[in-house]
C-alpha cells in the first residue's frame, strides 16, 4: 500500500474571499489510507504525530492499547507511518492507528513475496486435518497438505482425516522452508508452499503455458476457495471455486478427491501463477437459456442459497436468479419462511441478461405451490 500524496482542491469560481482562502487547501486523508509523520509528543495514553500538510494526528484509546508494544520503542522526533481511522476525530485531530498500518504494510510485503517466490524459514505453530499453521511477520500462514514436500506429507494409507491430523501434529515446532503462493488481506488468507520446482525456474515453467491452452492434470489439493491441479512435477495451477462448474459450488472437496484426473482451460497467467477453469470446457448454460427465456416469463425454480441480497433460485442446471429481499420487506426471516432451501416455487422473470449472466426473479405467491418440481440437478 502506498503512502498517499494529498491532492489539491482546485477552485473554479473566482471573486469570493472564501474561494481565495480555499485555494491550495489540501483534502483530508481518507479513512484507510496510510500517512507519514513525525512524533511530536508522547503522553501516558496518547501519541501525537505531526502529519503535514493535514495537521496533527492522534493515537489514543483502544488504538494506543493495541499498539502499546510498538509505542514503547517510539520517541518524539521519530518518523512513523500510520493508518487513518477518522479524518476529523475528537477535538479536530486525525485519528490514527499504528497497528493497522503495520498490518497493511506486512500484507503489502506478502504480496511482493508472492511475486518474487522468496523462500522463508517458517516455524510450524500448529496443525489441523487440512495442513500446517505457520508464523510469518506476526501473521498466521497456512501450508495446505497438498503443498508439503513428500517427506512431510502424512503417510496415511486409508485417507482418514483424523490420522492425517495426528501425523501433521508431529511437525509442530519444526522449521520449514516455504514461499508465498497466495496473499489476500481482505480474507486474511496467507498461503505457503514448500514444494520446490527442481532445476527449472518457475518463470521457465510458466512460459510454456498460454491463455486458452487446454491442459490435463491431477487434483493435488482442495481448499475452501478452489482446487490445486498438478500440471507437472513441482508445479500446480489453481481452479478457483467459481471456475469449477456452472452450477453453484459450496465446497470444492465435495466435487473432487486427491488424484482425480481432470482437463481444464488456462484462463489467466499472472505473477508466475496459472489460473485454470474446468467449467470453460463445458457448454455455457446461459447461452442455451437465452433461447428459452425472456422477461415476464413464468418459470419454475428451486431455492439453492441465501445471501445478504435475498435468495438464489436455480431455474435449470447452472442458471440461477436472485429473488431480492426487498420483496419481503427487507426481513431475512420472512424470506426464509416463504422460500425454503431445496423447495421449488413459481417466479416471474423481471430482468434477464444472459450475456452478463444476470437474472432477477419476482415471487408473488404467499404460499408455495405444492407440486413445483424444477427439472434441474443441484
Q: Assign a percent range to the helix content.
A: 10-25%
- Proper CATH architecture of the largest domain: Beta Barrel
Biggest β-sheet description: 5 strands, mixed, barrel
Mean pLDDT: 82
CATH superfamily of the largest domain: Nucleic acid-binding proteins
- Give the low-confidence spans: 2-25, 366-378
Report on the structure:
This protein has 378 residues and is an alpha+beta fold. The chain has 4 domains: 17-103, Nucleic acid-binding proteins (OB fold (Dihydrolipoamide Acetyltransferase, E2P), Beta Barrel); 117-193, Nucleic acid-binding proteins (OB fold (Dihydrolipoamide Acetyltransferase, E2P)), CATH 2.40.50; 204-281, OB fold (Dihydrolipoamide Acetyltransferase, E2P) (Beta Barrel); 287-362, Nucleic acid-binding proteins (OB fold (Dihydrolipoamide Acetyltransferase, E2P)). Helices cover 16% and strands 38% of the residues. The chain contains 8 helices and 20 strands. The strands form 4 sheets. The protein has a 5-stranded mixed barrel with strand order 1-2-3-5-4. Strands 8-7-6-9-10 form a 5-stranded antiparallel beta sheet, with helices on one face. β1 (34-42) and β2 form a beta hairpin.
Amino acid at each position: 500500500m502506498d503512502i498517499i500524496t494529498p491532492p489539491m482542491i482546485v477552485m473554479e469560481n473566482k471573486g469570493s474571499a472564501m474561494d481565495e482562502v480555499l485555494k491550495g487547501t489540501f483534502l483530508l486523508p481518507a479513512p484507510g489510507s496510510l500517512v507519514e509523520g513525525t512524533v511530536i509528543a508522547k503522553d501516558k495514553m496518547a501519541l501525537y504525530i505531526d502529519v503535514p500538510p493535514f495537521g496533527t494526528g492522534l493515537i489514543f484509546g483502544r488504538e494506543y492499547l493495541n499498539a502499546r508494544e510498538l509505542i514503547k520503542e517510539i520517541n518524539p522526533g521519530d518518523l512513523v507511518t500510520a493508518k487513518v481511522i477518522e479524518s476529523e476525530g475528537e477535538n479536530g485531530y486525525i485519528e490514527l492507528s499504528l497497528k493497522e498500518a503495520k498490518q497493511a504494510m506486512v500484507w503489502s510485503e506478502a504480496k511482493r513475496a508472492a511475486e518474487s517466490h522468496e523462500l522463508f524459514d517458517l516455524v510450524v505453530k500448529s496443525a489441523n486435518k487440512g495442513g500446517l499453521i505457520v508464523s510469518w511477520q506476526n501473521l498466521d500462514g497456512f501450508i495446505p497438505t497438498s503443498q508439503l514436500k513428500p517427506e512431510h506429507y502424512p503417510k496415511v494409507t486409508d485417507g482418514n482425516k483424523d490420522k492425517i491430523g495426528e501425523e501433521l501434529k508431529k511437525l509442530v515446532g519444526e522449521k520449514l522452508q516455504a514461499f508465498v503462493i497466495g496473499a489476500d488481506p481482505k480474507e486474511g488468507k496467507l498461503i505457503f508452499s514448500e514444494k520446490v520446482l527442481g532445476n527449472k525456474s518457475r518463470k521457465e515453467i510458466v512460459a510454456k503455458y498460454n491463455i486458452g491452452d487446454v491442459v490435463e492434470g491431477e487434483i493435488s489439493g482442495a481448499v475452501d476457495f478452489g482446487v490445486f491441479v498438478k500440471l507437472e512435477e513441482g508445479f500446480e495451477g489453481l481452479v478457483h471455486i467459481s471456475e469449477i462448474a456452472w452450477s453453484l459450488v459450496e465446497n470444492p472437496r465435495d466435487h473432487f478427491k486427491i488424484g482425480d484426473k481432470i482437463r481444464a482451460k488456462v484462463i489467466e497467467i499472472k505473477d508466475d501463477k496459472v489460473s485454470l477453469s474446468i467449467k470453460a470446457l463445458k457448454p455455457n448454460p446461459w447461452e442455451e437459456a437465452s433461447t428459452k427465456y425472456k422477461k415476464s416469463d413464468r418459470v419454475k425454480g428451486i431455492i439453492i442459497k441465501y445471501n445478504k441480497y435475498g435468495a438464489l433460485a436455480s431455474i435449470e442446471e447452472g442458471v440461477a436468479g436472485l429473488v431480492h429481499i426487498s420483496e419481503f420487506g427487507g426481513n431475512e426471516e420472512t424470506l426464509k419462511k416463504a422460500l425454503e432451501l431445496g423447495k421449488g416455487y413459481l417466479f416471474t422473470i423481471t430482468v434477464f441478461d444472459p450475456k452478463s449472466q444476470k437474472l432477477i426473479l419476482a415471487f408473488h405467491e404467499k404460499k408455495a405451490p405444492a407440486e413445483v418440481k424444477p427439472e434441474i440437478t443441484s
